[in-house]
Amino acid sequence: MKFVSFIFLLIVLAFVHVSAQSESNGKFSGLMFGDYFYNISRDSLIDDLSNKALDGEKDLNGFQFRRIYFTYDYKISDQFSTRFRLESQTLIGVNNTIFTAFIKDAYLNWKNIFEGSNFIFGIQPPPTYAVSEDFWSYRSLDRTIMDLRRIASSRDFGASLKGRLNSSGSIKYWLMYGNGNAFESEGDRFKRAYAHIELQPSEALKLTLYSDYRFKPKKEYTQVAQSYNNDALTSALFIGYQNDNTFRIGAESFLQITYNDLIQTEETDYLVQNRNGLGVSLFGWYKFTDLLVGVGRYDYYDPNMSADFKGDSRNYFILGLSFILHEKVTITPNFLLETYETPVNGIAIDPSLTGRITFYYEFL
Fold this sequence. Notes:
Blueprint: H1 2-20, E1 26-41, E2 61-75, E3 80-89, E4 101-114, E5 117-124, H2 130-136, H3 145-148, E6 156-164, E7 171-178, E8 192-199, E9 205-214, E10 219-221, E11 226-228, E12 232-243, E13 247-264, E14 270-287, E15 292-302, E16 314-326, E17 329-340, E18 352-363
Antiparallel strand pairs: 1-2, 1-18, 2-3, 3-4, 4-5, 5-6, 6-7, 7-8, 8-9, 9-12, 10-11, 12-13, 13-14, 14-15, 15-16, 16-17, 17-18
């Protein structure tokens, strides 16, 4: 049934595209990326681990599309424009239903609601990692660290205001207030507020400062017979440097504080304290020739830095060579490696290694 629904949506989009050909204000576009993958190494205890980036059993292999976008942009006037985007995706190494479509974007953009600022309403990207993902340039290999580790959803339903703070545009801002997630129905009064500043002191250098506050319902812990505020505060910093489109290097770090989390210190002992999650990502690529680009990335992630909670940090590596066959077509052989801190039970978990040949292409 899901496959039939997906085909129906494609047919609808096809009709939209045909009608748009006579409308200079409409544009249909899309992209697809997927792989042939092979899970070279997996520990037999991998299913017992949480917060892991690589899933699937050892020796599992096959072809998959990890992401398909169908996008329709329409310019209503010089002041108003809209975007509607459908997405289909799967997770690497997991036998999910491949063709399941959902709405990724659906928003109205009110340009220059006042000078230098736009107002956007609807399902849209929050400012969390939009700049760093664009700078990384290899979303086809994997999401940036805050997306990968589910620090914030890639889409939210809400309203945002974004624009420039000076005439040159070297200082930009982005504010948003939303439900907290666009992919779940809204069922409470709690929301998420975002703030983002982007600085570009030169063509080569870009920096962002980011923070968001997620309002959450109080949590009642039966173990300590008391309820606590469980809001979360996230802060992040990104810095990127590029040289004439020959190479890029970037660094991104975040700290997420979840207030009054319940920590189990012993079999029957519990402690209520803030849970501090830390992530650091270093990435870069170098263009050897117009055809060949080398890509590398390292992530460190610790979902709980408390001294009472050990054994949950992760190291994640990406290494690849990207062949640029066309500005809209690339083929990238790559390897993904994830290592795990030894859990508190003292049983070490072997690293996970996956090899892939990733195909990326845009159309229309």
